[in-house]
Each structure stands twice: as structure tokens, then as C-alpha cells.
Specification:
Blueprint lengths: L1 H39 L3 H37 L2 H7 L4 H40 L1 H12 L1 E3 L4 E4 L2 E3 L2 E3 L2 E4 L8 E4 L2 E7 L4 E13 L3 E14 L19 H31 L9 H31 L1 H16 L4 H28 L10 H18 L2
Antiparallel strand pairs: 1-2, 2-5, 3-4, 4-7, 5-6, 6-8, 7-8, 8-9
Helix pairs in contact: 1-2, 1-4, 2-4, 2-8, 2-9, 4-7, 4-8, 6-7, 8-9, 8-10, 9-10
InterPro entries: LptG/LptF_permease (IPR005495)
Membrane topology: Multi-pass membrane protein
GO biological process, one term: lipopolysaccharide transport
Length: 398
């Protein structure tokens, strides 16, 4: 009897889960792609190329919600129809009924971790790459319609009109990410060309004038090319040049060891610089450009090392929301005894996200700043686990 009941509950959960997962994933894909389409001005070809990269991102968010929705529907309906009371009358504990949902969520959570890893290390970088590869088309489309284009890569273009691929009287403003004077370029005409090998946008200008800051200017007759780097390091995918959130889990440990070694080298350089300044009776050099550069390198290295320690904990915590959502949702649905799917789901989902996500974000920010250990990102999961213990105690007395 218990094994048949387990199979029955698992079949009901799985059936609702698959349908809800397909619907929610498609909905999230449409919302995210539409957002990028409106924000970036992507064309149909770029939208189709973005879809595969957005699938793991959409699934990453859809899995916990659909897992919660499916168990709420099944246990809410069973409690409303009196099935749970019947099973209890036959001598089976209501806790036995929760086991299929817990097993289902426990098996689903590692899958969610893997999808989170794929979304962070492959999906989001792929999305950015498609947008960068489409930047020439995006720029021309906006320049034709609005006569201006503002890029996220630190430059903007204004034109009088666009004839074919020719920009008539373009005015280009380039801002360096590291600060410094703004470059302002004007020309009689110009053209945009994407160089996929160096991941740079080449602005080819004819009879151009350059203003560099407020005091330097120059005239360049004829045709000149002005490259704008779209991706640091060009197409380089060296882990040391990638953000920790873009690294796959299998590379984070290795990169953490490399960063730790680099930190020791930087500390050695700082110690050598300090000793040299003291020996030469020039302590003011510690506050000079060389000393400041070493201190900045040390500070940025420490920041990166903290992020490398935090990122694996973050992905496992995000993935295991499937389990902790179900641990709260399943007993709460049994207590609620409602056969209305949406009211049961809303009653379980809203309190869960209102408790979990603020705690998760708080723990994540504190861990990133180094104020708490990396496992602090699990604080939201721990709180949900504590709530589930209270709810299951009530289910035992059901």
C-alpha cells in the first residue's frame, strides 16, 4: 500500500510539474527575450540565436517555482478531498505522504545547481556575446530610426542621417571605463565595422576632428579608423580575465588557487616596496603612484578571492531552493486543505519568497563584502528549513 501510494503521489507531482515547467519556461523566455529586444534593439536573427543561451537562465528560475506549484496542487487537493484523512485512518502517518515530494525535490535540486552553473558560465556570457556580435546591426537600426545610439560599452553616436552604411555628419563620444578625459569625434561621414576577432567596433571616419578633454584637439584629413574594445581582452577566455560569476564550477577551485598565489606575490611586492622606502629614507614613496598601484592590486585581488569563495556556495544555495521551497510548501498545502490550485500556490509562494529572497540577498551581499563566511548565502535556506520543521510538527498532529 505505501509503495502504491508513493508512486501515485510521485506521478501526480511529476505530471503537474512537467506541464507547469514548460509553460513557465516559455513565458520567461518570451519576457526576457522581449526585454532584450526592446532594450537592445535586437533583430530577428539575433533573437533566434539568443534563445538557446536563455533556456538555462529561464529554467534556473522556473524549477523552484514549478516544484513548489506542483506539490501545492497535489497535497492541497488531497487534503481537500479527504484523501489524507483516509490514509491516516488506515494507520499511515501523514509524514509518509510527504516523503515522495521530499525525494522528488532532493533529486531535482542537483539538477537545478547544474542548470545554474550552465546559466552563469554559458548562458549569460553567450547572451552578451550575441549582443556584441549584433552591435553593428543594432547601432545602424537605432541610428536610422532615432539618429542616435547609446552603448553600454562607453560610447555614443549621433548622426544627421544614414545613407546605406554611410553615417552623415557623425558625432562620436567615447568615455574610458577607467576614467580620464572624454574623446569627442566629429566627421563629414563615417562607417561602423565589427571586428569579431578582436571583439572591437571599428569607427571609420572621413575628415575627422578630435577633442581630447578640454585643451587638446586635432584634425585628421582623409580616412582614419578608431577602434572601440567591446570585451576586455578581446575574445580571450582565460579564467583569470573572467568574472567569478561567469566561471563554471569546475574551474572556480583552480582559479581560487591561482588568485591566492597572486595575492601572496602582491603582498611580497608590497613588503619589498615598504622595505626599500624605509631603507632609502623615502617613506613618501609608499603613497606615490607605485605604492598606490600595488595597494589597488592587493585590494582588487582580495575582492576577487572573496567572490571566488562565495560563488560555489551561491550556486548550491540557489539550486537547493527547490528542496527548501517544497519542505515548506508541501506541509503548508496539507494544512490549508484547499483544492483551488492558485489560492493554495499563492498562499505558499508569497510568504516563501517574501522570507527567502530578502534573506538570501542579505547573506549574499554580506558574504561578498567579507562580513560573513561564504556559507552565509544559505541563511534563507536555513530559515525555510526551520519553518518546515514547525509545519511538519503540525502535520504529525493532523
Amino acid at each position: 500500500m505505501p509503495s502504491r501510494l508513493t508512486r501515485y503521489i510521485l506521478a501526480e507531482i511529476f505530471k503537474i510539474f512537467v506541464i507547469a515547467l514548460v509553460v513557465l519556461t516559455v513565458l520567461l523566455l518570451l519576457i526576457v527575450v522581449a526585454r532584450e529586444l526592446l532594450r537592445k534593439g535586437l533583430g530577428p536573427d539575433a533573437v533566434l540565436r539568443i534563445m538557446p543561451f536563455m533556456a538555462p537562465v529561464a529554467l534556473q528560475f522556473a524549477l523552484p517555482a514549478t516544484a513548489l506549484f506542483s506539490v501545492c496542487c497535489v497535497y492541497g487537493r488531497m487534503a481537500s478531498d479527504g484523501e489524507i484523512a483516509t490514509v491516516k485512518a488506515s494507520g499511515i502517518s501523514p509524514m509518509k505522504l510527504l516523503q515522495p515530494a521530499i525525494i522528488f525535490a532532493a533529486l531535482l535540486s542537483p539538477v537545478s545547481v547544474a542548470l545554474s552553473d550552465v546559466a552563469k558560465s554559458w548562458g549569460q556570457p553567450g547572451l552578451r556575446r550575441v549582443v556584441m556580435m549584433s552591435i553593428e546591426d543594432i547601432a545602424y537600426r537605432l541610428l536610422r530610426s532615432k539618429h542616435s545610439y547609446q552603448s553600454d560599452h562607453g560610447f555614443s553616436i549621433h548622426v544627421r542621417e544614414v545613407v546605406g552604411h554611410r553615417l552623415i555628419h557623425p558625432a562620436v563620444t567615447i568615455r574610458k571605463s577607467s576614467g580620464g578625459p572624454v574623446h569627442k569625434l566629429t566627421a563629414a561621414e563615417g562607417e561602423l565595422i565589427l571586428d569579431p576577432e578582436t571583439m572591437s567596433l571599428i569607427i571609420k571616419l572621413v575628415d575627422s576632428q578630435l577633442e581630447f578633454g578640454s585643451h587638446v584637439s586635432g584634425t585628421f584629413p582623409g580616412e582614419h579608423e578608431w577602434p572601440i574594445e567591446l570585451q576586455k581582452g578581446g575574445g580571450n577566455r582565460d579564467p583569470s580575465s573572467m568574472r567569478p560569476q561567469d566561471l563554471p564550477l569546475r574551474l572556480i577551485g583552480r582559479e581560487r588557487l591561482r588568485q591566492d598565489g597572486a595575492m601572496h606575490e602582491t603582498v611580497g611586492k608590497l613588503a619589498a616596496q615598504t622595505a626599500f622606502s624605509i631603507l632609502t629614507a623615502r617613506p613618501e614613496e609608499l603613497a606615490g603612484p607605485q605604492g598606490q598601484a600595488i595597494e589597488w592590486e592587493l585590494s582588487s585581488g582580495q575582492r576577487r578571492l572573496i567572490l571566488l569563495h562565495t560563488e560555489p556556495w551561491r550556486r548550491w544555495a540557489e539550486g537547493f531552493t527547490c528542496l527548501f521551497f517544497v519542505l515548506v510548501g508541501a506541509p503548508l498545502a496539507m494544512i490549508a486543505k484547499s483544492s483551488d490550485y492558485w489560492s493554495t500556490f499563492g498562499m505558499c509562494f508569497l510568504p516563501t519568497i517574501l522570507i527567502y529572497f530578502p534573506l538570501f540577498l542579505l547573506g549574499l551581499e554580506q558574504a561578498k563584502d567579507g562580513h560573513v563566511p561564504p556559507w552565509g548565502v544559505w541563511v534563507g535556506n536555513f530559515v525555510l528549513g526551520g519553518i518546515s520543521v514547525i509545519l511538519m510538527a503540525r502535520v504529525r498532529r493532523y
